[in-house]
Structures are given as C-alpha cells and as structure tokens.
UniProtKB/TrEMBL annotation:
Native source species: Merluccius polli
Any GO MF annotation of the entry: L-threonine 3-dehydrogenase activity
GO terms for biological process, alphabetical: L-threonine catabolic process
Function per UniProt: Catalyzes the NAD(+)-dependent oxidation of L-threonine to 2-amino-3-ketobutyrate, mediating L-threonine catabolism.
Gene3D superfamilies for the chain: NAD(P)-binding Rossmann-like Domain (3.40.50.720)
UniProt-recorded name of the protein: L-threonine 3-dehydrogenase, mitochondrial
Pathway the protein acts in: Amino-acid degradation; L-threonine degradation via oxydo-reductase pathway; glycine from L-threonine: step 1/2
EC number annotated for this UniProt entry: 1.1.1.103
Substrates-to-products reaction catalysed: L-threonine + NAD(+) = (2S)-2-amino-3-oxobutanoate + NADH + H(+)
Length: 332
C-alpha cells in the first residue's frame, strides 16, 4: 500500500479529538451551508464554522458560527484556525469553470494562491483537509467514457488546470509529509435552494426553475451534450463519508464519484413527465460548449465504491422529482 506511516501521521492520529472542529471556506457557495448543516447535526453547532468574504443571510447567521475569511489572507486564516482549534478544513472557495475563463487572473489567484494558503496551513496545523476536484480536471485527451481515476488529464480551462494542480499538490504533501489530504472529483452538482454561480453544468439547475416559472428554458449547451451529474444530497453524503473513512481504507487520495449522466434533452424529457408544458430551445454558447465537450461523459468510480463504500442514492428519475418537489415547496 502507498500509505505513509510517518511520525506526523501517528502523532495526529493520537491527538485528534473525537469531535472535529471544522472550518469551511467559500461557505456561502452552492455546497457550504448544506454540508455545515449535516456536520453540525453530527458534531454540534459550535464545532462547524462557515466562512466566506460575502455577507451572510440572517438564516445563515442564526444557523451557527459564521466568520469573514479571505483565503488570500494567510495571516487571518492562520489566526482563525489557531484561535478556534480547527482540526478539519473543507476548502470550497473557488471560481468555477465558465466564470474562470472570463476572469483568468482572478481564478488563478483564488484557485491556486488560495489553495496554497490552505494547504500550507493544513500542514502547519496538522489538519485533515478536503479539497473538491471535478469532472473539469479532465480534458479532450482524457478517456471520456468512462474517465478513470488515473489517466491523462490535461484540462483546457484555468479551473481545470487549478484543480489538477490542487490534486497533485495535496497528494505530494501527503506522500512527503503525511498531510491528511482528501479530494473527491465531483460531477455537476444539482441543488434546489443554493446556486452554483458560473459553472458549465449550471443549466441543469436553471431548467428546473424555468420549468416551474415560465415553462421555457433556453439551453446554452447542445441537446446531446452528456455530462456526469449528482444530486446535492449524494454529494454531501459522499463528502462526509469520505472525511470519516479511516486512512487505512484509502488506496488513493483523489477519487472520482459518480451517480448519473444525462443530456439536456434527457433531463427535459424527464421533467416533462411532471411539467408537460416545458419548452426548451437551444442556443449554444461557444465557451461553455467547448468546455463541456472536453469533459468526461461518465465517471468510473469503482475505486471509491471498493475502498470506502461509495454508493449514490439518486438517479435521473429521483433527482427530477425531488428537485421539482423542493422548488415547488419553497415557492408556496
Ligand atoms: C462547473 O460546471 O464548473 C462545475 C463543475 C462541474 O465543476 N459545476
């Protein structure tokens, strides 16, 4: 097994408290508040700190600790980790694929410099650190159907380049110093109440809102563009289960996780079973189409299934009925 058993790893295993103290960066994006809710149920409200540079809603403020934290400010992050006795860091702060292409310098700063800061702090403070990667970490020369964990990556977006860099830096620090780095490659994540903001897979959320508001959706991808997708509940559960997995189970530090793959046409057909009046038109956006065409159409997640028991719950049917139900419930 490639697992390190160095002094650092043994020391952390001996001193880690039963209840982790978790810091989530980029906590006001699509995934942070939902993950915080689950972890707070398990470890207590006070043990999970959400952070972001944005102003939180009253609901976020009343749900548990929230602090301002900029991942580009190393000293401030260090103070936060030290003063709060943080033991786990979930690093959600990042610019997504489409918005990253529109602002490469900012994406490089947040996705690469910000990542270096949290990796250094994790090493310095013996943290378990989770950094999400993505289907976007693959490129046109990768095997696409399915994409395995280990293969040629060479993505062609700054988002993808920064994610491959994150995977490799984290794995390097794990092998060299025993850093407890954990990384899952997420598919497009589909959520009813939180918004991704600037990804290539965002249409697959907007189409539900449009179906229930105007009954019309203009899709920026071709109708046959197939991409891996996942319900947010599965994504959160995968993250929590992976964070809990004993180190001895992990033969890799970066795993693909899969749930389903669909095209705009297929998801629209499934929505029409509930909302027959939905009309979809297609106006391809060249940037997002080019990005989607370079990504895998399916993920091979057999290593995650074997090593730590990953199994998704939601397929396309379950995803569609749950999304429509959740959005309808919020609107009434
Ligand atoms: C994006 O579309 O950029 C993200 C992702 C697949 O990583 N949702």
């Amino acid at each position: 097994s490639p697992r390190p058993t160095g002094r650092w790893t043994r020391q952390v295993a001996a001193t880690r408290p039963d209840r982790p103290r978790v810091l989530i960066t980029g906590g006001l994006g699509q995934l942070g508040s939902g993950l915080a809710e689950i972890l707070r149920q398990q470890y207590g409200k006070e043990n999970v700190i959400l952070s972001d540079i944005k102003k939180p809603s009253a609901h976020v403020l009343s749900s548990g600790p929230f602090v301002y934290a900029d991942v580009l400010d190393y000293k401030q992050l260090r103070e936060l980790i030290v003063n709060n006795g943080v033991t786990w860091l979930v690093h959600y702060s990042a610019l997504l694929s489409a918005v990253g292409e529109a602002n490469v310098a900012l994406a490089r700063k947040i996705n690469i410099t910000g990542l270096h800061n949290v990796l250094d702090l994790a090493l310095e403070n013996c943290l378990r650190i989770f950094v999400p990667s993505t289907i976007g970490a693959f490129g046109p020369s990768s095997p696409r159907d399915p994409a395995p964990d280990l293969c040629i990556q060479r993505p062609q977006t700054i988002y993808g380049v920064s994610k491959v860099h994150g995977e490799l830096m984290g794995e390097y620090l794990h092998h060299k110093y025993g850093l407890d780095f954990r990384c899952l490659r997420y598919p497009g994540v589909i959520s009813a109440h939180t918004h991704p903001g600037g990804g290539t897979t965002d249409y697959a959320i907007q189409i539900f809102h449009d179906a229930l508001s105007t009954g019309r959706h203009e899709c920026y991808l071709r109708p046959d563009t197939r991409l891996p997708m996942m319900h947010i509940a599965d994504c959160h559960r995968a993250t929590v289960e992976f964070m809990h997995a004993p180190q001895s189970w992990l033969s890799l530090r970066t795993y693909n996780i899969d749930a389903m793959s669909f095209t705009p046409e297929e998801v629209a057909d499934e929505i029409r079973k509930h909302v027959p009046q939905l009309r979809v038109t297609y106006k391809s956006d060249p940037v997002r189409q080019m990005i989607a065409d370079s990504w895998p159409v399916r993920f091979d997640d057999s290593n995650a299934r074997r090593d730590w028991g990953w199994t998704p719950v939601y397929g396309l049917e379950g995803l569609v009925s749950d999304m429509l139900h959740s959005i309808r419930e919020k609107r009434t």
